[in-house]
Amino acid sequence: MSVIVTTGGSRGIGACAAEHIARRGMGVILTYNRHPEEAARVVEGIEHAGGKAVALKLDVSDVASFSEFRESVTLALRETWGLTTLSGLVNNAGYGLFNPLATVSEAQFDGLFNVHLKGPFFLTQTLLPLLADGASIVNLTSATTRVATAGVAPYAAFKGGLEVLTRYMAKEFGERRIRANAVSPGAIRTELGGGLNKEFEALLAAQTALGRVGEAEDVARVIATLLSQDGGWINAQTIEVAGGYNI
User: Fold this and answer.
1) Residue 134 — left, alpha, or beta (φ > 0 → left; ψ -120 to 50 → alpha)?
2) Which H or E run includes 61?
3) Predicted pLDDT of residue 57
4) What are the sequence ranges of the domains in the chain?
5) pLDDT of residue 193 exceeding 60
6) CATH architecture, domain 3-241
7) What share of the chain is helix, strand, coil (3-state, %, to 5)?
């Protein structure tokens, strides 16, 4: 039995990824920060479909809480699945901020840095002793690292850092056969950054070869594939899941 930790699993891409991971027969430990009711609904849906899932609270910006979180993961593994190790980690939790470079505050900058780069770095480090040899790490980045989009400079910069970090994870964890890849979504219809209005969605669809914005399902399927044996020879890659955005 494989068990995967998926951060930010109460909504959006994280929730959809948790569901797809469970459909492939893997257990899921999903995290939430401010939405326990939504996390509970995701767990309920997975269990209704015959899978197993546990929801744990985690603020990925609070590195000091990670040791306690690891203890909670250890307990959940033992009590729910009778296991001592994880088979994967999805660093997905995040939020968006639209603000021009000229007006970004230090607090806004630090908030994005803590969630999108510092958090994944130290959470991976903290959970590394629990990851089994041959496990898989998937880091969620963004197509904004390739296509400059005005108003998201700090977010994109830290996602770019996470792409570099992904390659270093693959390099340093390779002796244990732990794979690390990044999934880079394009415009996706989620609540991140307040969602998409009709005009903005139409603009993004017009810039995409397949003529629409993406859905959480489009990204979740790729995440689940990378965690499975189907993705067993994919390593140190950033895979853009964007339908051909700005090509």
Assistant:
1) left
2) none
3) 98
4) 3-241
5) no
6) 3-Layer(aba) Sandwich (3.40)
7) 50, 20, 30
Distance (Å, rounded) from C-alpha 39 to C-alpha 36?
Answer: 5
Question: Locate tokens 């660093």: which residue?
Answer: 91
- The rounded mean pLDDT for the chain is 96
> Is the model's pLDDT at 16 over the cut of 60?
yes
Residue range 218-224: mean pLDDT, rounded: 98
Task: Tell me which residues are annotated as active site.
Answer: 155
State the Cα torsion 168-233-228-68 to the nearest 10°: -20
| pLDDT tens-place string over residues 113-138 | 999 999 999 999 999 999 999 999 99
Q: What is the 8-class DSSP label of residue 91?
A: E
Helices (H), the chain: 12-23, 36-48, 66-76, 106-113, 119-127, 153-173, 198-206, 216-227
For 209, other C-beta atoms within 10 Å of its C-beta total 10
Please say whether the beta carbons of 123 and 66 come within 8 A.
yes
